[in-house]
Structures are given as C-alpha cells and as structure tokens.
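Action item from last week, closing it out:
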Amino acid sequence: MSQRRPDPAPAAEPARLPPQATMGLLDYLTAHAVDEDYAFVAERDRAARAAGGDDTPARRRRVGPLGAVAVACVAVLVVAAGVQNSRSAAADDRDRRELAGQVSRAREQLETERVRLAALQRETDRLQARQLASDESATGIRNRIQSLGARAGTLAVTGPGVRVVADDAPGSTTDRTTVLDSDLQRLVNGFWEAGAEAIAINGQRLTNLSTIRVAGGAITVNARSLRAPYVLQVVGNPDTLPARFAETTSGQAWLDLERQVGLQLTITPRDDLRLPASEVTLRYVDQVAQARDRAGQEGTP
C-alpha cells in the first residue's frame, strides 16, 4: 500500500552575493572609482549644508579670536628671534674686527721694538769699537769680543760657504711631501756636523738658543714664521761642505727624502755670504767674576 509523501518544502532562496563577487573585479573598480567612505562623507556634508544653509565646511571657517592671538604671538616670537640673531651676528663680527685690530697693532708694536733694539745694538757696537780702538792695550780684547760674537751669533758675519735651498715636492698637498720642522732640524744639524761656522735660515741667524719648530701651522725660527722655500746660508769651506754633509747621517736621510717623497734640495757654493746678527738676550747667564763679586757684595754686612 502506497503512502502519500508529504509535499516538498519550498526551495530556499539563494543568498545574494556582494556586487564585487558577481560583477568581476575590473568592472567593480570601474563602477566604484570613489571609495564608499569618501562617498559617505560627501553625502554627510551635503546633508549638513542643506540643513544649516551654510555652504562652507566647519573646518574651513575663519580662525577665531583665540587663533588670531596665537598666530600673533608666534609671529612676535619669530620676529624677536630674528632680531636677536641679527644683533648677535653683528656683535660677533664687531668683536672679530676688534680682536684682529688688536693683533695687528701688537704685531706692529713688536716690529717697531725690534727695529729699535737693532738700532740700539748697532749704536752700542759702534761706541764699544770706538772705545776699544782708542786704547792700544784693548786691541786683543776687541778681537776676542769679535771672535766670540761671531761664534755666538751676536755679530753679523761674512765669508765663503754654500747656499742651500730646501723646498716641498712639486704639487705638494700633504705633510708627507712637505718640508717639516724635523727636516730642517736634520738639515741644520748635518751642516753643523760637516763643519759650518755660521748658519742662517731665511735671514734668521741660528745660535745655541735658536729653536726650529711648528707653531700655528708654520715653521718658526727664533719665533719668526717662515715659508718655503727655506734658504740656508752656511758659512764654511765651500769645497768640502757639500761632500761632508752627504756623508753625515742627516745628509743620507735627506737623500732618501729626495728619492722617496720628492723633496727638493740644492746646494750652491758661494764666495761671499753675509749673515745678520741674532737678537740674543741673556737673562740668567753671568760671567763667573761678576757672579762672584755680586755674591760677595750680598754677603757683606
């Protein structure tokens, strides 16, 4: 016996898919070029303008009184900072000019004092020579003073010797290819060892108190700044000085500098060299007799 089957349930309606799933990605992007969030905001702004009658968005309204005060304060601060910076720059420039002027005046005064000292030294030498020349018994003393002055560098000298020029390597841009103070020291020591009797560098007479060192980026001799090329006037035997210098340790070192880094050194014999006197001031040295006399006077009650 057959049984009645119940009526079939109505088929469920299929769920609706989002447009991006049914249209295809390319068609969806073309149809929805504007993001939905932008469209939502635009619709909200249109509704707000329709309700309020104001066609200017709130964010574009004029700045209120407080905003104007804030903008004015910022402007005042910017102007004040600019004025202060301008005044500071002007003050710094004025200080620099004043300091440069002080240095220049000090240099001029120092040069004036040096010229005056040299003139007084020449006058002293003239008076001393005249006084000794008037006394026949003082001839030996005068000769000894001249000999000691020539050796000490306090008297100008003349005589044969060699002219030496030391210079940087061509196109030198580094310390390696530049004449250093140690190179000049080595050069001078080599010529002393070779038999030099008097030496001057760029017009600066060398004594036992002379220094050759770097100060302020320049080589100084007797506290005078020198520039390359460095010209040495060496009084001595012009026939033997070059060869004996080449045999010294300093001479060998200079030959190595010429070969390795390109420093330039020329030695030329001369028959008549003139070396100036050095400005030597002894502050602590006394002759033995004078020191003994001073000690005796201080010990006398």
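Closing note: The first strand starts at residue 157 and ends at 167.
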